[in-house]
Amino acid sequence: MRKDEHPDGVPLTDEELSALDAHWRAANYLSVGQIYLMDNPLLRKPLEAAHIKPRLLGHWGTSPGLNLVYTHLNRVIRRRGLDALCIWGPGHGGPAVLANSWLEGSYSETYPDVSRDEEGMSRLFRQFSFPGGVPSHVAAETPGSIHEGGELGYSLSHAYGAALDNPDLLVACVIGDGEAETGPLAASWHSNKFLDPVHDGAVLPVLHLNGYKIANPAVLARLPEAELDELLRGYGHDPLHVTGDDPHQVHQAMAAAMDTALDAIRGIQQAAREGGPARRPRWPVIVLRTPKGWTGPQTVDGLPVEGTWRAHQVPLAAVRDNPDHLAQLEAWLRSYRPEELFDDQGRPRAEVLACVPQDRQRLGATPHANGGLLVRDLPIPALERFAVPVEEPGSTLHEPTRVLGDLVEGVMAATADRRDFRLVGPDETASNRLQAVYAASGKAWQAQTTSTDEHLDRHGRVMEILSEHTCQGWLEGYLLTGRHGLFSCYEAFVHIVDSMVNQHIKWLRTSRALHWRAPVASLNYLLTSHVWRQDHNGFSHQDPGFVDHVLNKSPEVVRVYLPPDTNTLLCVADHVLRSRDYVNVVVAGKQPCFDWLTLDEARVHCARGAGVWEWAGTEDSTREPDVVLACAGDVPTHETLAAAGLLRRHLPGLAVRVVNVVDMTRLMPQDAHPHGMADSEFDALFTPDKPVIFAYHGYPWLVHRLAYRRTGHANLHVRGYKEMGTTTTPFDMVVRNDLDRYRLVMDVIDRVPGLGARAVGVRQAMADARTRHHAYIREHGTDMPEIADWTWSG
Amino acid sequence: MRKDEHPDGVPLTDEELSALDAHWRAANYLSVGQIYLMDNPLLRKPLEAAHIKPRLLGHWGTSPGLNLVYTHLNRVIRRRGLDALCIWGPGHGGPAVLANSWLEGSYSETYPDVSRDEEGMSRLFRQFSFPGGVPSHVAAETPGSIHEGGELGYSLSHAYGAALDNPDLLVACVIGDGEAETGPLAASWHSNKFLDPVHDGAVLPVLHLNGYKIANPAVLARLPEAELDELLRGYGHDPLHVTGDDPHQVHQAMAAAMDTALDAIRGIQQAAREGGPARRPRWPVIVLRTPKGWTGPQTVDGLPVEGTWRAHQVPLAAVRDNPDHLAQLEAWLRSYRPEELFDDQGRPRAEVLACVPQDRQRLGATPHANGGLLVRDLPIPALERFAVPVEEPGSTLHEPTRVLGDLVEGVMAATADRRDFRLVGPDETASNRLQAVYAASGKAWQAQTTSTDEHLDRHGRVMEILSEHTCQGWLEGYLLTGRHGLFSCYEAFVHIVDSMVNQHIKWLRTSRALHWRAPVASLNYLLTSHVWRQDHNGFSHQDPGFVDHVLNKSPEVVRVYLPPDTNTLLCVADHVLRSRDYVNVVVAGKQPCFDWLTLDEARVHCARGAGVWEWAGTEDSTREPDVVLACAGDVPTHETLAAAGLLRRHLPGLAVRVVNVVDMTRLMPQDAHPHGMADSEFDALFTPDKPVIFAYHGYPWLVHRLAYRRTGHANLHVRGYKEMGTTTTPFDMVVRNDLDRYRLVMDVIDRVPGLGARAVGVRQAMADARTRHHAYIREHGTDMPEIADWTWSG
Fold first, then answer.
1. Beta strands in B392-483 (DSSP E)
2. CB-CB under 8 Å, B307 with A452
3. What pLDDT, on the 0 to 100 scale, is given for residue B794?
4. Hey, what's the signal peptide range on this chain (chains A, B) (predicted)?
5. Which of A183, A219, A781 has the CB atom closest to B186's CB atom?
6. What's the mean pLDDT when you consider all of chain B?
7. pLDDT on residue B112
8. Cβ neighbours of B536 in A, within 8 Å
9. Is the pTM of this model over 0.95?
10. ipTM surpassing 0.95, yes or no?
């Protein structure tokens, strides 16, 4: 029957239907094969236990649904000539995506040893979840992917990130009903309030309700359909339902839904791009309701499997030992009629490939999923435009992030036409003093506006939503598709995305080892509103531990910078924005901070990563220092300099060296991090045997963890944040945590031998100053004048 | 005009309206006073700069809305005799909650020095955000609070946690429109699918749309009302709208909405408790739309403030220096007509207090917000019932978490009537092998069911939703209101709640220092499906860093246990379930694991936290060991014992000591953690000078960070996970990370001097075994028989 013979107007002719179904069956067959087979890939022989993998690993349950979506995306991509990318939220369904990539040929092009024939099929099967093979999930190794989907929650924000500034791209996004329960996913539905139909591409969410998670029903699958529709409309979408377990009926319904959705998207984009009224559209969403483990065993050992949670991983678990299971597996595999799908050489037959698009339009071959192929160097203006003049160290003050805002504005302006740079943050751009950027771009916003709003812009590239998860997901999607960005965040609350950055680091670590993945722009964090200056918020906003978290991860990927002043922040920012394949963490204050280094000095200092500030110390060429005052971070540097000044005045005979560390990984051993210093270098900087009083921005033991192998480690005494926080004055915060200038001087006196009676008196004076401080703040609520008015030069 | 004179049937008489408005004005006045005033609290004198705090800190914007909700909750609590608790999502509006607590008297009862009179008011004002005073947020210091609201996102899950198993409790929950954008909040709306109207109390969400966050409009505030209603109905709620900026009109609307909501709740509960049809009700939600900074300055310096983001913190910033600002502040304060609100002694007048309930019904005095007053010891069955027999070490295998499941089932059964214990987890109870618990309680579930479902139970106390955030929020709310629980989670994905556990630890740290807060049950994590056994999932599921994260926090609160086998897990679980005011992290495997210790031995070992396993070593009383093999965690213990066996066989002359560590904080210095060992004890256990090869479950440098001050630290060599992960065999995972038995033996040979030629041969044999392993797994996909079949006794 041809299409025009269908009285009910279904979209597919019988021929199309047959071809789509063949493709889907082929993908299902290949998915099952990957989970089970070591040998006999085309079932040319009766199936035997010896053909079965010794360890059965993987996830069948979601695979047939993913195969259906891939198949139908192929159809519309080919038919409409689309540029498309798909995010596979249930990425544990790795077999499905690998199967489709192999079918379309992109897998063999990426990995020529896995050819598109019987031998290649055999390798495809064997390598899956096999030692030395490929991981069980969609991962960096998977062609066409920018999203692993191992830790659930980020598919939709990744999809939006990919769509931003890609006006001709369709980003489909399969969301599992398990993933839909997570917070990050739930928040990211509102991303459509930030998607510009003029400059951005489209996101087509496919909410896949297969009913069960690992062992439980999924919440959204168990809402009455009307209630689910209310929810999706409340998210700003128009739902299209595809429901069923009869493949032919579902193919027709899915094709119809895809056509309707893509027509709607085209309509929305055309209207917006032809200057139609600027109102937020309702974007389509497809709700796909098919059984978990669809087409797999209906029952196993008398228990229902298809359509239940029992289909989640490996439905037949005892295939090697239980002949019934083996027979059931063989029947299952043969139910796809492999002989109709693959030719004598094991190549997919023409009908199977009829729906597959060509070249870069194949989902496994799109360069958008290998963003390094598309990324261009970011046009960063010369830092001289922004650098602050420094006549002498510590005589002027600037707010480092405010000056950085000028640089970001410069980058934003320089990318106005290219549109390949975004600034993201959880409603903190202005709070973090980066608001200069609004001169070059407003804030993306498609929802209602009022007359009191400022800087909202339907076409803006500053992205603010009060969801660190969504910010991170957007940026990851944006970077992995070949663009650039910066995430500015309160230091304490970046922990909200601890687990997301884990996954991104793992992705980059894996990508770097793949010959075919080109380097992408680094994920850059600016952490500000930091632990030492939470005047408005106190204890809940005090946590410098993100650095510790990140430094646990793959050293080839992670970088941590603590610029001590404005010009060093500019140099660090310039460096990280140019870099590739890293996660860069930059911690810098937004409060007025003394300028210590000129731009040229800052450049040299940042290039070294750590160095002696000769002007601040009192050692001379004739002898070694008696003590090293080391510091990392803006507030610790300030206190260290103040301590150096006190020592210079009160103990003038003492030879003090001041060392500042910008790049924390310099402290690590050379074999533990690419930036690690040689021991000889470390000894030269910190001395092998003198006391080192190290004032560090965060948790003090981190410095020990980085430096424990160093010669002089036993002489290292670190001060830092030790969870002594509340709403109080800035100086009281350092006093509470024993990071203040007076305590640092006491530490020096306690650790340098033979300082004599004068030092005893100085020590007492320091202790008295701390006592005076306590009394003063309780009386006045502000820091003592000697603190507030202190300058290095004074 | 009396109520019966109102033609439109508004709920409040003029007298009631006047009294409610007086209370609200008083709370607003006190809120502003806290932000600004050091002196002259009742404005008896004209306001002068000297009366103004030198540092103006706090958040005005949300305060009038919170004051409105508090006022109207007072009304319904008093009128209906309710037992109620309120979660203040916008907890940065600390001034509001403090003001109300002071008005109702609960503040002065808790802190007698802040009396309910002029002097107390003066102290209330001065102490706010002042050094030595109280934090600017609702915090543990705030009477009536279990929720800080500093890090946004958790109000609603806390509210549900508080309502569970509290059938007579109303938990109101104010959700800011900023917080509503976060993922955790977005996910937690679906908590109503888990709330049992029979055994649980009610949650009444009040979504407060004041329109702006710090600097941006809020998404939900900028949806058309019809779209917002669809969203809320999609969440399973019936929205009631209260909108306006005219106080009297808003009071009437709010009173009406509260009455409607509470009538609906009563109806739902009555129907369910009288055995009505078991269907999920639609619970009410109030949408409160009032201006940000309502009743504050309309404009400042010519710019609009009320109703905009400029009202977020301190609307008049230059009051001490700018006479116009000072005058504007005075006019603002006087607009509340303090003279009508407070008597000559500064006490609230009777009209102001007319709506305030009595005693424990006051929101600031409810014992539900001081759960330690309500908590009872958990009935934990004797461990003998569950312990596994151990004839000799390492001869039998058990799955530790499966046996733990029996214990949890015992606790669940013993609390069947009390209903004060819950097990929470993100759809992993069965995956984590705790399914025995279903014999005592099913899984809470109020959504649709099908015939294939298992263990779903409208009245169940096992809570599973695929949102770690929601699990954590539920449990925190449950514990802080005086109950018990356990959170079982995949080890890698507990990082999802890194920031939440930060906040809970901070809460407990602060609570412990407050005389009036009674200790609550600890927050207990069971982390399983751990890094070493991710056979199905690979690299994305491999992260043991939660321990590192937690150990950065307040040592008086955090505890970390790595039981090496089943009986030690039972002992640890028993201990943590009995404990108070801690965050306990227990890491244990679910895969078959050798039994090393009998229950009695396990008790002793766990009590010590770390100890020598004499039976495993080869030292004797005549001499010191040549080397110490230390281990922590089940897989490292297994490999260490295997290494000890190899050494015993191949280097019989070597005196080996085996040390197992269960309690990681024992490694810390005595002054750094309450469990820290004395140096003498550490030296006795690990020796001061012998090589220590430490096989650790997680990132190896953690052990250095804990032990860097110890005498023998330079001899400590730690092996652990170093991000070398993928989908592979269990033994390949340890080989990839150099934690395997062969590598440990090589480490011993490399570090013990003078072992001679035989050791050279042994070392080569170990290296050969590793090579053999690599070849074997690539060929067979499984571990070598010598690995798979290994036993200690064999």
1. 397-398, 421-425, 443-444, 456-457, 462-464
2. yes
3. 67
4. none
5. A183
6. 96
7. 98
8. 57-59, 92, 129, 136, 313
9. yes
10. yes
